[in-house]
Amino acid sequence: MLEQNIKKVLVSHDEIVVAAQQLGAQLTAEYEGKNPILVGILKGSIPFMAELIKHIDTHIELDFMLVSSYHGGTASSGVINIIKDLDKDVEGRHILFVEDIIDTGQTLKTLRDMFIERKAASVKIATLLDKPEGRTVEIEADYTCFTIPNEFVVGYGLDFDENYRNLPYVGVLKEEVYSN
Question: pTM score > 0.70 for this model?
Answer without folding.
Answer: yes
